[in-house]
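hey so u asked for the seq, here:
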Amino acid sequence: MASQKGRSYRVAEEIKKEVSQILQNELKDPRLTGFLSVTDVDVTNDLGYARVYVSVYGSEEERSLSLKALNNAIGFVRTEIGKRIRLRHVPELSFHLDKSIEYGAHITEILKDLKEKEDKGE
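ran it, structure tokens below
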């Protein structure tokens, strides 16, 4: 059981690396605006499905357009992964927005404001 969990982790990391390279170098879609990065990949234990989490730096509209472009390119990305990674079955992909970086920036801003208030003696 532990080796299977380790295998899904290794496959997830490999998929993360390959999807990042595909999105940077291969995918040419004008809807992909702003800074896009793959933050995480979760693969089921049977390696049947992979949830790819992406972070898009930009407005809400840019995030929405980028996610639509990624969902339209799922077949292309999955085919490319199949060419690059030796797997019996390439997992079904789904792209999801990761808002953790945005949330972290928000928390940093709150802490900065608190620090400024503390320094002023409020």
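The chain has one domain: 2-120. The longest strand covers residues 35-43.
lmk if thats what u needed
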